[in-house]
Amino acid sequence: MISKFFVGCLLATAAFAQTTGADGTFHFTSPQTPQSLQEAATILRTVADIPQVSIDASLATLTFHGPADKVALAQWMLGELDRPGGETALHEYPMANGEVARVNFLTNVPNAQPMQEVLTVLRTVADLQKVFNFTSRQAIVLRGGEGTVAFSEWIVDQLNLPSQQKPDATAREYTLTNANPKSGALARVNYLTNVTTARGMQEILSTLRIVGEIQKIFNYTNQRALVLRGNDSDIARAEWLIQDLDQQPGQQAAGTHVFNTPTGDDVTRIFYVANATPQGLQTAVTAIRTEANVRRVFSTTAPSAVVVRGTSDQVEAAAQIIAAGNGLALLR
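The structure corresponding to this sequence follows.
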């Protein structure tokens, strides 16, 4: 029979090992640059939670110190990044605390800018903070709870597409389990089919943030994709805005473009205008903010529109302001 004293000694020994930590050394066998070595060190600090990392660029070697389990994780991560090929295999490391680490090779993400956009999407929309890139292998290394990692993997799969593959406008949807109510449990990836410029994409993105109050959203320019997350009503409004604004210039349908929230006096309306200059649109936005006391208002130049959200009375006041002039002609 094992005594309580003996068990206590084992637990104390394990705790001491975790406190004092372990040393690790990794030598890259594949060619590395000063940038790639710095990125590898950042991966250890950010994803593996190992603050003590030093680089010997002449030997392509990293040395590090931390808790034994984190050092083992670091050795695995670096080994996956140093191994040639295997981009389509599952590179996963389960941890004792229930978290999962992954290495993903984004073979269709061509350079640093789109890679940074993928990282920002994961940090902003998936709430994944333990993530960083390894540019020379077109890889990202991430770590989190199983649910967060599964959601992140889904996002990566929607974005890591060949450049010649242009998805249709059908929104891709993901429902999170046990999600933070403030963040929302419904996620979408929308591919814009008619808005082709970076400015046009940014205008729709800003409209969703300001008018739709969608904070967990970011763009992926290569596929003209918007990745967003929120609750059911916010996502429904966002989908309506995207579908209505993703139009070719001059193809906006006449008539009233209105979205009514199912509960409460919460109205969103898009006013398409003709003969609009950026200055005229901004003048109208300023007037609506000051005269109608509407804060959720934004304008887009392609298509030329003013998007307003407020009570029925506020939206009607905005319509009167636009109809009154400001150099704009309301399309009816």
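The domain at 169-246 is CATH 3.30.1370.10 (Ribosomal Protein S8; Chain: A, domain 1).
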